Amino acid sequence: MKNKNRKFWLALTVFSLMGQIAWVVENMYFNVFIYKMFNASAADISLMVGASAVAAALTSVFMGALSDKIGKRKLFICAGYVAWGLSVFSFVLLKKETLTLLFPAASAVSLGISLTVVLDCVMTFFGSTANDAAFNAWLTDSTDSTNRGKAEGINAMMPLVAILAVFGGFMAFDLNEASSWTAIFAIIGILTLACGIIGFFIIREPQIKPAEGGYLSTILYGFRPSTVRENMPLYTTLALFVLFNISIQIFMPYLILYYEVSLKMANYVLIMAPAIIIASIATALWGRVYDKRGFGYCVFFALAWLCAGYVVLFCFKNTALVFIGSLLMMCGYLAGMAVFGAKIRDCTPEGKAGALQGVRIFSQVLIPGIIGPFIGKTVLKNAETIVNSDGTESFVPNVGIFAAALAVCLVLIVAMLIINRRKTKNNK
Fold first, then answer.
1. pTM value > 0.85
2. Is the pLDDT higher at 254 or at 283?
3. Per mean pLDDT, which range of 84-98, 246-260, 349-363 is the poorest?
4. Distance (Å) of CA 134 to CA 68, 207, 214, 297
């Protein structure tokens, strides 16, 4: 078993958690930011999520291959987190008053939305370099089949721990006030930057050889038909992972807005906190189950929990039942991320972790980040609207997003059953 030392587990915990905190702010709160500060529409949110997904995928392809070519992970992780923090900090400049002062002839609202999309892509470049490309490759290089489920369980629970930390931290702020967002972006930016500096002292560089061949060859490795044929279990898993993440991306960009605007849950943080804690513990334990029982056993339980959560959230708006539905959904989401992530790492050829991060991000971020929000936007096309205090209108997310997410998840389950049936026939 590789890396039993404490520094490995400390680095895994610190960088996974801080990375997920930064991603939570982007994936769940940038939507809230442009909704509240610039009255963004569902189409604006869909555009931002899609553009960020493209940026993440391209970055992972080129920077993951570069880290393979150089044979280094630590530098990309640490320097990337420092730059990531600075890019988050830059959002403190996005205020209507500041934009009006600097660009008096332009509409502060339209300009604010456009700049948010652009800066989000810039931030995503540094975040994907540090986290999606380098950190995930480092984690693959630093684990093996004996501890990968445990490590992936910790890694996969961090999004919910991050949500809990962000939800709890944001309780101190009035998100309708521009000054609150200034403080939020400053705090998250500084913490991410500090994490990068700490990494120079706690991350151990894995022993990997620089990739052979040219840089372009390394970039194209994961997209070659020959690579697909040689690693069919990996690419089959990635294809299924696409469906899983499309389901998640249909509702996730609108989840907080659904709680706050549709259900009028001013105390949604207090309601969600226990669900997040329970789901995080369950996910960490489920990673250990993966090490013993494998992918096929674990993934169907995760998908069953996810579907059950969708059904409850679609059917009920009572606070207690929303809590139960959210708990089931979160358990399914994070357990699914853990088992898919571990299976992908198990199927990754040794020494090719960096080159294949781009392919992984295509399945986890790019394709789902475009298709999922588009489905969500389509479902919410004729959604109810409300009039804000300044006379502008905003859409109200509805339960249609959970019905659409459920439909995609059921397609995934059917696809997995078909694949398992074919495997059984071939083994006879």
1. no
2. 254
3. 349-363
4. 9, 14, 19, 30
pLDDT, position 186: 94
Q: How many CB atoms lie within 10 A of CB 145?
A: 11
The DSSP symbol for 26 reads I
Is residue 241 a contact partner of residue 364, using CB atoms and an 8 Å limit?
yes
385 with 257: CB under 8 angstroms?
no
Which domains does the chain possess? Answer: 6-204+214-427 (1.20.1250.20)
- Over residues 221-246, the mean pLDDT reads 93
pLDDT at 390 over 70: no
Q: Positive or negative CA dihedral for 60, 61, 66, 71?
A: positive
| Residue 36 to residue 47: CA distance in whole angstroms | 17
Q: How far apart are CA 285 and CA 306, in angstroms?
A: 17
Q: How far apart are CA 300 and CA 284, in angstroms?
A: 17
User: Residue 428: which pLDDT band, with cuts at 50, 70 and 90?
Assistant: low
pLDDT of 2 higher than 90: no
Structure tokens given for 367: 């394709």
Residue 143 CA to residue 150 CA, distance in Å, equals 10
Q: Report the distance separating Cα 327 and Cα 319, nearest Å.
A: 12
Q: What pLDDT digit, counting tens, does each position of 142-152 carry?
A: 887 777 777 87
H or E segment to which residue 172 belongs: none
Q: How far is CA 314 from CA 58, 251, 284, in A?
A: 35, 11, 27
Rounded CA separation 98/405 (Å)? 39
The alpha-helical segments, DSSP class H, found in 203-318 are: 215-220, 225-230, 232-251, 255-257, 268-293, 295-315
Find out whether 4 and 143 touch, Cβ atoms under 8 Å. no
3 state SS for 54-84:
HHHHHHHHHHHHHHHHHCCCHHHHHHHHHHH
Gyration radius (Cα) of the chain, Å: 21
Q: Which of 62, 42, 61, 39 is nearest to 50 (CA)?
A: 42
Burial label, 71 (beta-carbon count in 10 A; 0-12, 13-18, 19+):
middle
Tell me the C-alpha distance between 90 and 191, whole Å: 14
Mean pLDDT to the nearest integer, 48-69: 88
Cβ contacts of 390 within 8 Å, gap of 6 or more: none
Q: Which value, to the nearest 10 degrees, does the dihedral of the CA atoms of residues 359, 370, 51, 61 take?
A: 0
